[in-house]
Design a protein that fits this description.
Blueprint (H helix, E strand, L loop, with lengths): L7 H15 L27 E3 L5 E2 L6 H7 L3 E2 L2 E2 L2 E7 L2 E4 L3 E9 L2 E2 L4 E6 L2 E6 L5 E7 L2 E8 L3 E4 L3 E5 L10 E5 L2 E10 L10 E6 L2 E7 L5 E7 L1 E9 L6 E8 L4 E3 L3 E3 L7 E10 L10 E6 L10 E4 L5 E8 L1 E8 L6 E7 L4 E2 L4 E3 L8 E6 L7 E8 L5 E4 L5 E4 L2 E6 L10 E5 L6 E8 L17 E6 L2 E7 L8 E8 L2 E9 L17 H12 L6
Length: about 550
């Protein structure tokens, strides 16, 4: 809060002049009582003189009762009574004549937000102004007191909702920024597990921040699950903490309107494993699954951290293998980059006193602008997850790319293909769309390892992740919903280049029908055909 004493300098100069001219003669100044401001000078020279800075008059505080003295005390500095008028009294109470300016800012997406209504209020009334083009507001000629500052605008919410300020001439601070967010909400879901035992953690406290302002909080349930609704926008940061465990952060979370977003599972390390450890893994080419040499890996502390201080760096060997030793325990964001490849980020974890291998990632060669690439990766179990893409052929029939038919061609031209069928954990499995037809494309992940099972949570707990590149842009990242029964993950639908999340887990016998492509929602026969293809998959050798 910027509290500027508008009259202080002039009053201070007046005081200096008075002291220079009058000196000890101030003791002869007039007395004041609160029933009439101007009185005869005090004849009792033993009384301590208190001088009114505006009217240069002496106040005999011994004539005042205790309540009146307490009202004057805040204004007394070196026997000078600052900021009251002795000429005008209100029911025997001295009147404050000092004024100040209060200013602050409203931000939307890290820029100033114009035309926001700002209300300054206390028990004496309200004043209203609005923000300028830089999101700044200012109230002038404000007297001492306790005030509330509140922003408002239709279809937006603000954090914090209001700011309380206590205006005193000694203060020179700027009011906390207000963060404006569209009043449209989406949901964030996730899970927290013990990094050592791989079991759910209950009562983990999660604090949600945006622009360093606390927005919301939630705790995990008995299954380590959390969910909360937040206003649409990006730049959210989540802090995870629990007694006896190392805290961690999850940055750059984006909330989409009317959409459920699933974050990757957070693994928290107990304090017994707070030390240094070793991690290792392999960086694979998303096409063909071979290790890539001379790939640079930068580690930053925290999950989903794209920029800032780099903790440590290495490069892969001839087989794409990397390792870090003597690394402090915690979660890290690994940025991988190399010539002729798109950069990628993935999460690694270091546990004190342990070596954690198989922290692998895949990066894709640079794509043509019109191409789409879908990359599936997962953890150690289940061993065999399969990628499935269905789409519209030129003959209006649906095609299906998967392990049993890896390419779709038209006139010998490949329109879409699967690079390989990974049956031994981790992935990657990569499907590339080289040419797009009109109509809906749908992508699924099937748990082949557990496909005969009627009850299975293996797919949901696999840590599977799907990344979708459109040209050189990473358009979407999908993390599998945690702790759901099922063997089929319906990930997304794409229509005319627009991706619609589905993010549902079902059993193969009952695939999802939650289609999001608005212009093709009526074409349910295409979805029925997709379901029939998925139900009748051939067995692998």
């Amino acid at each position: 809060m910027n509290l500027i004493n508008n009259n202080y300098k002039s009053q201070y100069n007046t005081i200096l002049a008075i002291k220079f001219i009058l000196g000890s003669l101030l003791l002869l100044s007039l007395q004041l009582n609160l029933s009439g401001c101007k009185q005869s000078p005090s004849s009792d020279t033993d009384k301590t003189p208190y001088i009114c800075s505006r009217y240069h008059e002496e106040i005999d505080i011994e004539t005042l009762d205790d309540s009146k003295i307490s009202e004057l005390i805040p204004y007394i500095e070196n026997n000078i009574i600052m900021g009251i008028t002795c000429e005008t009294c209100h029911n025997g109470v001295a009147v404050d004549i000092l004024t100040f300016s209060v200013s602050g800012r409203v931000i939307l997406d890290e820029s100033g937000f114009e035309n926001i209504t700002i209300t300054l209020s206390n028990e004496n009334g309200i004043e209203i102004t609005s923000t300028n083009a830089d999101g700044i507001y200012i109230f002038n000629d404000i007297k001492r007191g306790h005030y509330s500052i509140t922003p408002s605008m239709e279809e937006y919410v603000f954090f914090p909702e209001n700011v309380e300020v206590n205006i005193k001439y000694e203060d020179y601070q700027i009011a906390d920024d207000f963060i404006a967010l569209p009043a449209v909400q989406g949901t964030i879901h996730g899970r927290v597990k013990n990094a050592i035992t791989d079991t759910p953690l209950q009562n983990v406290k999660i604090l949600v921040y945006k622009c360093n302002i606390l927005i919301d909080s939630v705790t995990t349930d008995s299954n380590g699950i959390y969910s909360l609704s937040l206003t649409e926008g990006d730049g959210y940061s989540f802090d995870f903490s629990m007694e006896g465990f190392i805290s961690t952060t999850y940055d750059n979370v984006t909330v989409e309107a009317d959409t459920a977003i699933y974050l990757e599972t957070v693994l928290q390390i107990d304090n017994l494993h707070n030390g240094t450890g070793e991690i290792s893994g392999t960086i694979y080419n998303a096409l063909g699954g071979k290790g890539i040499e001379n790939i640079k890996i930068d580690l930053r502390e925290g999950i989903n951290v794209y920029s800032g201080q780099i903790a440590i760096t290495t490069t892969t060997n001839n087989d794409g293998f990397y390792s870090f030793s003597n690394l402090n325990a915690g979660n890290y964001s690994a940025e991988v980059s190399g010539s002729e490849f798109e950069s990628n980020f993935f999460t690694v974890i270091c546990i004190g006193g342990m070596s954690v291998p198989n922290q692998n990632a895949a990066i894709t060669p640079i794509l043509n602008p019109t191409e789409v690439r879908i990359i599936l990766t997962w953890g150690k179990t289940p061993y065999d997850l399969d990628s499935h893409l269905t789409g519209q052929g030129n003959d209006n029939n649906r095609f299906h790319v998967s392990y049993w038919k890896k390419s779709y061609k038209e006139n010998e031209l490949i329109y879409a293909d699967l690079d390989l069928d990974d049956t031994w954990s981790f992935g990657p499995e990569t499907i590339t769309i080289y040419h797009q037809n009109n109509g809906s494309y749908r992508f699924y992940v099937h748990d082949y390892s557990n496909h005969p099972e009627s009850v299975s949570f293996s797919l949901s707990n696999s840590g599977a992740q799907v990344r979708v590149y459109q040209g050189s842009d990473l358009s979407e990242t999908f993390n599998i919903p945690a702790n759901r029964g099922g063997t089929l993950w319906s990930v997304f639908e794409m229509n005319d280049g627009t991706i619609y999340p589905v993010n549902e887990i079902t059993y193969m016998e009952y695939p999802s029908t939650n289609l999001r492509s608005r212009s093709h929602r009526e074409l349910m026969n295409t979805n029925t055909y997709d379901m029939e293809m998925l139900r009748h998959l051939p067995e692998k050798d």
